[in-house]
Amino acid sequence: MAKAACIQAIVTLKQAPDDKQVSFRIENLDSLLPQNNSQETFIANTQQVLSDYFLLNVDADALFETWNAADNNFLARTAGLKGIRLLRQDPVETLFAFICSANNNIARITGMVENLKKRYGRNLGRIESANDSDEFFEARIQDFYSFPSVEDLYCENDSVERTLRELGFGYRAGYIAKTARLLHEKEGGGENWLLALRFTPYNSAKESLLELMGVGPKVADCILLMALDKYDAVPVDTHVWRIATRDYGVTNGGKTLSAKTYKIVGDRFREIFGQYAGWAQSCLFSAEISVGGGGEVRPKKRKMIKLDSIDVKEKEFGEDEENSVLDGMEEKSKIVGKVKREDLVVEGKRTRKTRTVFGMGD
């Protein structure tokens, strides 16, 4: 899949009350247009970026039909969550955001990501709403920043780490600074190195990510799934472990999530859900943490899998790695609606509130 065109703009989205369409608006469009670029071209590029970001080339309806037919537990638990989509996110932003997620909660992760952008990113401008009943959305006056590049975070000395520690990043400050240095040293640049992992087989790509500071097996799988096109990557945290043992016949005599356990859970999801197992896992994860998501469901009886019979070298994960993915996945698992690429429509007016409508199907 080709990389989408890059845009540097504030784009706002709003879902219609009838849930049938999503509109986007490019803020301050006139001021963003280069002399040699038309409004139509800029809107088309933005549309391409959004289509890429929301993976509109993937037929989510067909995936859900396949998963529902394969697994009645999935059908029962995700009945009200049909609109869940994976996001194809920027690899650099995804990497550093998940480093921030280690042993952390959503509020602090959000604050750290915002501080990274404010301190090292570029100011993209601000949204100012004339009143509280703006016809498009209700907005606060707020500055928006781009996420910093690898080079923005790179420094030969320890100034970046010191600054981030002062901002409350704790030990994660060292992980971010050291990972930025490692990426800076990659041939062709860190961003290109990360993007190349989209075309690298899953196991090799995961091994490459594990070379970076602050990246363990689960964080690596989150990055692979959400930014590097590895839709069969299955991040396993305590929630997913509970799903696997309760609903999918995985058993383990111990209480710790080990490397052996981790591999078996991922293989079990891949066996049932196929090449998009990570997407299916995200749906089950969302159902698990949502209100009523853990309700009583009677799945088909499944053959019990004994982990002791699998010859995998066992390594216990530390507390940070054990807990890091839960908050990161909660932050990034978002219900964004059922969007069909073929229904994209552009309304062509050259105004600040230029709007494009995404048709959302029946």
Automatic annotation (TrEMBL):
Q: What is its main location?
A: nucleus
Regarding protein family, the annotation reads:
Belongs to the type-1 OGG1 family.
Keyword annotations for this protein? DNA damage, DNA repair, Glycosidase, Hydrolase, Lyase, Multifunctional enzyme, Nucleus
Record-given protein name: DNA-(apurinic or apyrimidinic site) lyase
Highest taxon above the source species: Eukaryota
Its EC number(s): 4.2.99.18
Q: Its GO CC terms? A: nucleus
- Enumerate the GO terms in the molecular function aspect: 8-oxo-7,8-dihydroguanine DNA N-glycosylase activity; class I DNA-(apurinic or apyrimidinic site) endonuclease activity; damaged DNA binding
Q: Which InterPro entries match?
A: DNA_glycosylase, HhH-GPD_domain, HhH_base_excis_C, OGG_N, Oxidative_DNA_repair_enzyme
Q: Does the keyword Hydrolase apply?
A: yes
- Domain HhH-GPD, by residue range, is 100-282
Using the UniProt record, name the top-level EC class of this enzyme in a single word: lyase
Please give the SUPFAM superfamilies that the UniProt record associates with this protein.
Answer: DNA-glycosylase (SSF48150), TATA-box binding protein-like (SSF55945)
Q: Which reaction(s) does its UniProt entry say it catalyses?
A: 2'-deoxyribonucleotide-(2'-deoxyribose 5'-phosphate)-2'-deoxyribonucleotide-DNA = a 3'-end 2'-deoxyribonucleotide-(2,3-dehydro-2,3-deoxyribose 5'-phosphate)-DNA + a 5'-end 5'-phospho-2'-deoxyribonucleoside-DNA + H(+)
Which GO terms of type biological process are on file?
base-excision repair, AP site formation; nucleotide-excision repair
- Pfam families assigned to the protein according to its UniProt record, in alphabetical order: HhH-GPD, OGG_N
